[in-house]
């Protein structure tokens, strides 16, 4: 009762003597401090909006311009060439102002207009400069004088100390490629995957499309590109992610792993306390725009930061035809799941962020809570793991009002979701590889009901202190979440730390209110729906085969000594491994970013090319080593060119996808587009790059290495492969496929990847240095010359 009374700011009673008013100073103090925090955030948001709005100038530069104009006028010269006098004539000011005051006001108005014009000019110049991408196609290590001058101009126009979103208004729009170029690149990509008859058929369909309906569709797409910031991103989010009616668990969501060899503390509540606190520190930096803008590594070229806007306080909401993404401005709590029960954990007290030790104390309270789950509560999360339509119907029928709506709102409006798992995971035991596979599956799908897959991201903290992350895919791509995860891991271990007993550091305010257990009123018929969704999700989870391993024979250090791009080397390795595994080539997807453009997301690099197939065939047929090396270099150079084209707006698949969407809006049928978009990606790949290298000291602390993350297979008869290049001597692989396909086996494919890596390096290491230099300087692959 005491806690209940403290929660009420005031009470009043009407008596015959009048009104008896009782104030709770503690509650009023809490309200005041919480309000103060809210107003602080509004002020910071307003200040950042002003700074970002006038970028690449600064607010103080306005004063400089005003003083310069007034000083010039003091010398009896008119820098405005008569404009100040014109402004003075039409200035609606009081007649009581002297002529001199009117002149000063007119000069200030002119100075402000001049300042705004200079800002607009600088922003347009920066936008034009960032539209140049010729630097990306220059030979590595050799920079032309044009690029050097361009780099210098970018630095000049970029201003000083930009905020996270400062570059947003200066980023160029994603260009629309010509239909001719896209079709040419598409036909080139499918040539090694088709026989002569199939290729001729596809060639005829492509020519018919290019000369017919393609022109009309392209016109509408160009019109959209002039109106919208990005002609792809909104349709990509809606039609690829939100309109999908199959489970997002495995099919869409992805995961990130903890440190591979280290668990900072074995205490579950302590690890959760540091993880939550570190994540909220990141949110604070994000809200204040104190995070440095992301850039192309080693350059000053900025990347779009739009995906960061919906990182926190965000949830996917199911619908019968399409889902939606809801984002709230702020949230002062996180939602926690433990042994079938949901809790609201407040992370602020009197406007102050709880310390890691206080968060540990609160999490331990949840772990010690003996309350049983309400009927139907334990497996409620299975609705987010199953098909989307049953979840949308159940939401409408049972969560429209009352206690169920309030509890569901609490989960969806939380800053993020935390699962306190009662299992132990990580690389442990007598067979560490098997334990890593089990760890990956746990992060990807868990028990199918102990994660809330609709949240933007969810942390999972295991009983032995290991943790991990599961992220929903529609609102952002993996690099945005990976940036957060790197910060959380580094802050947890290197800044916050733990005491000698493994607990979080700091003191505890014992008066903290207990975490609130959410209430539910779920009838038996609703529980039947949950069971059906769980059955669908469990069948999908049981079908997933996973293999995670660290390749430590060599890393990017040795690959770069061969003067080959590490990513191209690994992609060629995957082509060789797949060919050895299946005896054929397949359409291959490698994710590339388009964040050089405003609101850019991803583009596809079709890694299976004519050149890669020629190399693999030559190697497997026993061609001379010198010829194989020449073909390998040709293939890696071709891959790098395809990657650069994808990054700079010259990709294939997003353009064709948008043309297809336009055709559906217009009710036009295109056999060419229909066939292109129905082709399966049997090898779907992605690299998880370390973005904040400065946060980790792999020389002095090599054990603090994350294993990266992974995702499920895209095709039922294919593989999903995620890889991360860590330091100079390690490459981590996450391979997924389905047990139901008799032709795929994650462990068997992993063995082929290992062998292919060694075979490719052996081939390049046996290359005579003189021969390699001659080959690089005198030979140009015919295919590459033709495409240029």
Description of the structure:
This protein is an alpha+beta fold. The protein is 48% helix and 13% strand. It has 27 helices and 20 strands. It has an eight-stranded mixed β-sheet with strand order 13-7-6-10-11-12-3-18, with helices on both faces. Strands 14-20-19-17-15-16 form a six-stranded mixed β-sheet. The chain has a two-stranded antiparallel ribbon with strand order 1-2. Helix 3 (59-74) crosses helix 5, helix 4 (83-89) crosses helix 5 (99-130) and helix 9 (213-227) crosses helix 23 (653-666). It is globular. The N and C termini lie far apart (78 Å). Residues 1-10 and 770-788 have low confidence and may be disordered.
Structural class: alpha+beta
* Cα distance spanning the termini: 78 Å
What is the number of helical segments per DSSP (H or I, 4+ residues)?
Answer: 27
Q: Kindly report the spatial arrangement of strands forming the biggest sheet.
A: 13-7-6-10-11-12-3-18
